[in-house]
Amino acid sequence: MENLENAHSLLEENITSLTTVTEWGKVCGFDCRKKFSRAYREYFGLRPKETLYEIRIQKIKEYMKTFPNEINYCVAVEFGFTNEQGLYKFIKRHTGLSPTQLRKG
Hints:
The protein is an all-alpha fold. Helix content is 67%, strand content 0%. The chain has helices spanning 7-13, 21-27, 33-44, 48-66, 72-78, 84-95, 99-104. The longest helix has 19 residues, at 48-66.
């Protein structure tokens, strides 16, 4: 069923496999992305897409600090990107930094 109380913990536990709001909504018991987005926004006052991106960036940053010598391709694969370029574009779009800069910061 609809499980908004645990939405953040479900996302954090499954961050490497959940890459879209639709997937996140299904884990929370919603069949429709729009219903999940609407309910999430009413419950938390935030857009789920922004929260998803924020938590993904946070987890990628934590992973890079935990494994400082891990190459970007391995980080990309760990977080569900098809290649290093996908990781680069995602991080650059949402932080303004490159993966290397994010790793150092």
